[in-house]
Amino acid sequence: MDFEQLFNEFKSKRVLIIGDSMIDAYMWGKINRMSPEAPVPVVEINKHENRLGGAANVALNLKALGATPILCSVIGDGNRGKLFKELMQEEELSTEGILLTKGRKTTTKTRVIAQLQHQLRVDEEDIHPIQNEDKFLEIVTKLINDMDVVILQDYNKGVLTHKIIQEVIKITNKQNIPTIVDPKSQNFYSYKNCTIFKPNLAEINSGMNINCNADNMSELEKASSELKEILNAKGILLTLAEKGICINTNQEFKHTPAFKRKIIDVSGAGDTVVSVASLCLASNLSFLNLSILSALAGGIVCEDVGVVPINKDKLLSEAKKHIIL
Predict the structure, then answer these.
(1) What is the arithmetic mean of pLDDT over 282-288?
(2) Could you give the C-alpha distances from 93 to 56, 61, 96, 109, 232, in angstroms and in order?
(3) Which residues on neighbouring strands pair with residue 49, listed in sequence order?
């Protein structure tokens, strides 16, 4: 299979994303002076912007790659929740998997950006576990049947409870639907029997209570092998930021150095990595090539300011230059 065939195959894939969604809000401006009230800069705001974030950004990446994403998430029923649904509709994303909950805050991350640099972030959120698990599982169960792959996107914001995680993986394994997990430390060991588990270095260190160094491949191999055994996963996809990516399967442990890119903003890179990896998994690409293409995609989106989805044409072009399938 060449890259043209692979990317063409992405178009036929249906992907269910289950997890924490949010609004990425931006205040763009410039700094011309320091505040007379405190030793902080004054940012003169000239533009406000709202984008889909979290698991919804994964949906945007999948859509950009030509796939059909369906998002299952829980948001609040206030103005932010209404804005979130409006943003989904503007992007022509299905809202059939979105459950509105009375009184819950819709997670909103507001970034202040000036001189193309991230100056400040303000978070508004509720992170307690959702109360309406059964209602949410009912929605998920109705949508999961005809999916090619399922992504569990965990930001520790309360959507992915232990019960939901276990039920989803039980259903997917029964129906032979592959799963890929983008974890946080809180539910780290809850994802037993998933297909691919994708932590970054900070997450594997925190989740396993260890202190691996990104330059020590023997440490990383040992830790990821232990994690793979604990979770009974088919593969551990370990992202190392500027140090690249590792894949640990039953067949091999392989490290791929990062592709040289002009890094401006790493926000959302993990969302892109899991999106590309999920489609490669659904397309039966080897785990090694899956890891390499995912790493390339993650680097490409870091060349833009803010959280943005991958550009399919750019990824295809760069993949042809740098990767041999």
Answers:
(1) 96
(2) 9, 12, 9, 21, 33
(3) 26
Q: Which residues are catalytically annotated? A: 271
pLDDT digits over 252-272, tens only? Answer: 999 998 887 666 666 678 899
Q: How many CB atoms lie within 10 A of CB 317?
A: 13
Count CB-CB contacts under 10 A for residue 310.
Answer: 25
pLDDT in tens, 133-176: 999 999 999 999 999 999 999 999 999 999 999 999 999 999 99
Residue 221, in any domain of the structure: yes
Higher pLDDT, 118 or 307: 118
Buried (b) or exposed (e) across 252-262, using 16+ Cβ within 10 A? Answer: ebbbbebbeee
Question: Could you give the angle at the alpha carbon of 29 between the alpha carbons of 28 and 33, nearest 5°?
Answer: 150
* CATH number for 256: 3.40.1190.20
Residue 115 counted as domain residue: no
Q: Into how many domains does the chain fold?
A: 1
- The residue assigned the tokens 């551990």 is 236
Q: How far from the centroid of its chain's Cα atoms is residue 322's Cα?
A: 24
| Residue that is written with structure tokens 């289950």 in the block | 18
Distance (Å, whole) CA 71 – CA 61: 12
